[in-house]
Amino acid sequence: MSGEARRTTVKTRTDPQEQEQEQEQEQEQVTGTGTAPAAEVIGALGIQPAAVEVHDVHKWYGAHHVLDGVELTVRPGEVTVVLGPSGSGKSTLLRVINHLEKPEIGHVSLNGELIGVRRHGERLKELGERVILGQRSRIGFVFQNFNLFPHLTVLDNVAAAPVATGKLSRPEARQLARDLLARVGLADKSSAYPRQLSGGQQQRVAIARALALRPGVILFDEPTSALDPELVGEVLAVIKDLARSGTTLVIVTHEIGFAREIADRVVFMDGGRIVEQGPPAQVLDHPQQERTRDFLSKVL
Ligand SMILES: Nc1ncnc2c1ncn2[C@@H]1O[C@H](COP(=O)(O)OP(=O)(O)O)[C@@H](O)[C@H]1O
Ligand SMILES: [Mg+2]
Predict the structure, then answer these.
(1) Is the pLDDT of residue 135 over 80?
(2) I want to staple 29 with a disulfide (CB 3.0 to 4.6 A). Which of 118, 134, 172, 251 is the partner?
(3) Is any ligand 1 atom within 6 A of the Cβ of residue 66?
């Protein structure tokens, strides 16, 4: 995670007045998060499911038009599964949502708040790095390769971010981490290091870590693709539990059966575009588009 976050360091040239505004905004961001008691956090996890809106997003890598006018609305508590062939832009879409990648055109908002940018007259202007980090803490991200901190225990992997962002005191964060680890079935692994765990266990720690910041939405990028087949089920079970608890989830996966079971909506992408979307029964069982049918015939 840290490597990806570092790459997005943004330099924006601003005049003094704008800088002041930006500092004010940063101040707001820092003080606005408050400190929630661990007990309340644990209640129903204290998560307020957020709405995500992706509006006319275009992204190029050189001449390669990787996202070509993507339009996506995810309602609070909705579970969206994104399907599509390799290279269709699924990971890039997730990375645009939490502003790890900047779209050249279009924007993303979380509960109506622009992510990574602010309006400046007709144009969108990049926000300061600290504000972006604050926004990003409300968007959980679970990677294919877990990305746990190898030098930290499981407990500290989960407790680190709430402390670093000033959301919880250290004892509160550790209590929350213990509760989250219990929730993903790893109460007995708190003092282990990532290398001592199976892939399935590591991914469950990564999910607990994402939850620790009480994000409004959690993005999953092929969370089970790196796992041995017999470990896939335990990770899907944890995600299913989250889906049932009303968390907003956007999941890139090739697990079609899982999508059918938990998705409110299935989105099929190809060539940087959303080709088709709808309830699983529609997109998976009665796809309207040839490209969707073709893809499903290969993965089903
Ligand atoms: N950082 C990058 N630089 C250049 N091209 C990239 C970069 N990231 C992704 N791409 C290209 O963008 C396209 C979409 O990639 P990606 O979003 O990873 O697709 P998917 O997740 O659906 O497999 C691919 O052709 C990929 O090679
Ligand atoms: Mg990908």
Answers:
(1) yes
(2) 134
(3) yes
Ligand 1 atom with minimal separation from the 269 CA: 22
On the question of pLDDT at 56 being above 60, the answer is yes
CA dihedral 299, 69, 105, 121 (to 10 degrees): -140
- With a 6 A CB cut-off, is 96 part of the ligand 1 pocket? no
Q: Are 198 and 166 in contact (CB under 8 A)?
A: no
Q: Is 88 in the pocket of ligand 1 (CB under 6 A)?
A: yes
Indicate the SS3 state at residue 150.
coil
Judged by average pLDDT, the poorest of 5-19, 102-116, 140-154, 211-225 is 5-19
User: In the chain, what percentage of residues exceed pLDDT 70?
Assistant: 85
CA angle 45, 73, 266 (to 5 degrees): 85
Closest protein CA for atom 27 of ligand 1: 87
- pLDDT at residue 24 is higher than 50: no
Contact 56, 69 (CB under 8 A): yes
Q: Which two tokens stand for residue 267?
A: 């989105």
pLDDT tens profile 150-183: 999 999 999 999 999 999 999 999 999 999 999 9
The pTM score is 0.86
Atom index in ligand 1 nearest the CA of residue 272 equals 14
